[in-house]
Hints:
The complex is a heterotrimer.
Chain A: H1 2-14, H2 18-38, H3 42-67, H4 70-73, H5 80-103, H6 118-126, H7 130-151
Helix pairs in contact in A: 1-2, 2-3
Chain B: H1 4-24, H2 28-52, H3 62-92
Helix pairs in contact in B: 1-2, 2-3
Chain C: H1 3-17, H2 28-52, H3 61-64, H4 69-92, H5 99-118, H6 122-140, H7 147-178, H8 183-192, H9 197-214, H10 223-229, H11 232-258, H12 271-291, H13 296-324, H14 328-363, H15 374-377, H16 379-393, H17 399-411, H18 417-442, H19 456-474, H20 477-488
Helix pairs in contact in C: 1-2, 1-5, 2-4, 2-5, 4-5, 4-11, 4-14, 4-20, 5-6, 5-11, 6-7, 6-11, 7-8, 7-9, 7-10, 8-11, 9-11, 10-11, 10-13, 11-13, 11-14, 12-13, 12-18, 13-14, 13-17, 13-18, 14-16, 14-17, 14-19, 14-20, 16-18, 16-19, 17-18, 17-19
Amino acid sequence: MAVVTLASAIFSLEAKEIVYGAIGLAGSLFGVAALFFLLDAPYVAVFQIAVYIGAVAVLILFTVMLVRQERWAKEVKPASGTTVAGAITGVAVVVALAFAVVDANLSRFDSVSNTATFVDIGKLISTGYAPVLEVLALVLAASIVGALALSKVDREGSG
Amino acid sequence: MNNLADFVILSAMLFGIGVYGLVTKRNALRLLFAVELMINAANLNFVAFNQYLPYAQQANAFGQTFVLFSIALAAAEAAVLLSIVIVAYRLHNDIDVSEMRTLEG
Amino acid sequence: MDYILAAVVVLGAAALGAPVLQTAERRFRIGAYASMAALALAIVMVAANTVNGGISTVPYFGNLLVSDPLGDIFALVVLSVTLAVAVASFYSSPNGPNIPSYYSLLVFSALGMVLLSYSADLLMLFVAWELMSLPTYVLAGFDKKRVQSNEAAAKYAILGALSSAIILYAISLTYGVTGTTQISGVVARLALEPFNPLVSVAILLFVVGFGFKMSIVPFHMWVPDAYEGSPPAIATLFATATKKAGFVAAIRVVLVIATVYALAPNSVFTLANVLAVLAVITMTLGNVAALTQKSMTRLLAYSSIAQAGYILVGFSIFAYSQQTGAFAYNGLLGLTGSIFHVVNHAIMKGAAFLAAMVVLTQLKRGDLGAYNGLAKRMPITAFTLAVSFLALAGVPPLNGFWSKLLLFVSVINTPLAWVAVAAILNSAFSLGYYFWVIKRMYLDPGESTERVKEPLWSVVLFAVLVGLMIGIGLFPQQFISLASSAASSVIP
């Protein structure tokens, strides 16, 4: 599962056609969802599939197909120096984090000890973190207002 | 894949791939992909820590709850970013950031 | 009586209500009036909270939000700036069907910044951060017919999304180490923790993530483009409000963690040194780049970057004093200076940006050539710009002088004195381009000496802002003691 996740993550960035890239992204998101299942967190996994893959990835895919045209196909090839620099930065980040993980000796935790179910999640959301949920609702409202204001076609002379 | 370190290192690799994408790509949509990968890396961290760590028991499902919030926020963010992309498309049928030369550097 | 909650409810209602008025033709003004009234009401409520010391009875309040002087100061600053921006856009932008959405998004963003200022939990902080950021991406690209506006929005949105992703990752690591996201809980747990590299990585990621909004070098590349491309009123919002939100988040997270936790077990790679180096790079690069700019907005953008460097000086000495246990007084003085400078910067930069906006809308030109002989054509605007530049350069007795003085004095006899030397050299250097623009306005001949109309709203706003700059400059004690109480509320 880890291999699938990472491979499709790289594919999503490196695929020649951006449509395949979008599909690669969906694959990577699906891999993460599978990892959530492995981690014994089925509710989050289903949420990931429903919202992330079902809504976000599909939205991205539609936008990609909508804006894809002849000019679109020629994606500028980055200078090889940029690719090398990017690879070095990425590897450096991974190595630094990996060192930190090893140093913190996280491998001593080797069994899933949590038995939280969706009931616990529901309790947490509806009691202690209810105000955050309300703020989240405001964020979603703001994004709807914003996205509508931007993507709506204004009639001539009314902009 | 049977201890916490594996999951956290996997998430670090996902994060690293996102960083690589951000440094090398100039296309608005590819950059969005890279950011989504980084968000997913963080989400994976949350769930892994929540499931493995003993002290996470106090607030039993907090890490999972945080992931629900962050997925919803990522959806809102993607919607706004994509509407900006669509406006760009209408303006000049092209959304390569490197071709946006009107503003200097 | 819970003032903050009331302010939040008022802002939320206005933000949600304004777009509903969109359907009715020619009713757009109601949405704008409602938004401005809500902002003004929220300012009154936050002020009442400041005066009353803010004790709250709402459940969960202490866990998710905390009412302290630090939050009060930042909430007041961001609300006032947003109100000024709303007034400025009301009179300068053309009317259209999307105008109610514009005010709605402004209020949403202001609400996000208020919640961010009071956040006591990383989950709340993150959601508030998004509530602040998402509307500003849209606002940057609100001028749909202009390519520059769209590009500004694209650049700003991608880098904004990146910074949120980095902050999210940092929060996940913090959660992994401490098992909680409540900032007080994190601090209590980290105090027991020996050196743990995961925490150090998390702190550095926090600095990077907040650094994008604070516009510190090397995370500043979006700033000049976003400021220049966005509608001018929104550029004011970026420079004076969302940037301040970055600072309050950094104080709430990075500096609070720094009170108990050192970045590394040695004395070279410390948070104080990291911040000090960032501060020096930021102010130097900002000032040098500002000197070469030909457009007023870009000059202001780079000068805004340089000012972020000065603010970081106070952060760095605070981190130093907390981690070594020495120079406790200097640390507090430095953070006081930082907070005071944030307030001053909002006033000075707000005045400068609004003046530049008036010049842009009246003369239809944004390059520095438009400012030749401005004193004859638009005397009030030119005077405001001159006063705000003098304040930015730190000329006494204006407000910028006092906060810079606090910042420089706080580091002068500590091991970080080299930062003070760099900051003073930078300050002297920056006088160059400020005076250069003032000379253009007052001494150089312009293309004409004809009076250009200065709108009434701008005259009123400028009078208030210039009054504040001179007033705070003459009587700084009150403001310094408020900033000082905010600074001491950071130490747990």
